[in-house]
């Protein structure tokens, strides 16, 4: 059964049996101390103490020969990569989603989102692999900082 659960991911996953999950798609805090124009922030976005425990739990609950796709903060890739590899994941792909607008500008205009494709074991190759560069369609969601779709999750029991 597919469902979304609202709660601390480490606490929630610790209640799952080992090798119980077929696939994980995650969009964790990017560790950049994000604040929007109205001052809202994202829980867990200032420090990374949750990152290694979360990666360890994802590896534990993911079935053998399965995939994790994780968005990440590109300017904190060293922290994410170290946590993924320490948990046991291997990198098998990288996705770039191009946007037709800049979410922020500094030395360059940030017009993309990135995600790594990570493997536990040796998952079967797809018959029709996705291209590694894909277009990004803005969802119109003004409540999410990068325009990703927002879902109303169930609460943890």
TrEMBL record:
InterPro entries: DNA_methylase_N4/N6, DNA_methylase_N6_adenine_CS, SAM-dependent_MTases_sf. Residues 21-126 form the DNA methylase N-4/N-6 domain. GO terms for molecular function: DNA binding; N-methyltransferase activity. It comes from the Bacteria. GO terms for biological process: methylation. Pfam families: N6_N4_Mtase (PF01555). Transmembrane segments: none annotated. Keywords: Methyltransferase, Plasmid, Transferase. Belongs to the N(4)/N(6)-methyltransferase family. This is Putative adenine-specific DNA methylase. The lineage of its organism: Bacteria, Pseudomonadati, Pseudomonadota, Gammaproteobacteria, Enterobacterales.
């Amino acid at each position: 059964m597919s469902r979304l659960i609202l709660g601390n991911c480490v606490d929630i996953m610790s209640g799952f049996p080992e090798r119980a999950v077929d696939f994980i798609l995650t969009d964790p805090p990017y560790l950049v101390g994000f604040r929007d124009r109205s001052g809202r922030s994202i829980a867990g976005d200032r420090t990374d103490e949750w990152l290694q425990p979360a990666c360890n739990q994802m590896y534990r609950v993911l079935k053998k020969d399965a995939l994790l796709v994780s968005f990440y903060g590109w300017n904190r890739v060293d922290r994410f990569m170290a946590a993924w590899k320490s948990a046991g994941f291997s990198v098998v792909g990288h996705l770039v989603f191009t946007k037709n607008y800049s979410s922020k500008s500094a030395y360059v205009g940030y017009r993309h989102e990135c995600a790594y494709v990570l493997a536990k074991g040796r998952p079967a190759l797809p018959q029709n692999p996705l291209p590694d560069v894909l277009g990004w369609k803005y969802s119109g969601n003004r409540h999410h900082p990068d325009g990703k779709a927002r879902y109303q999750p169930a609460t943890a029991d």
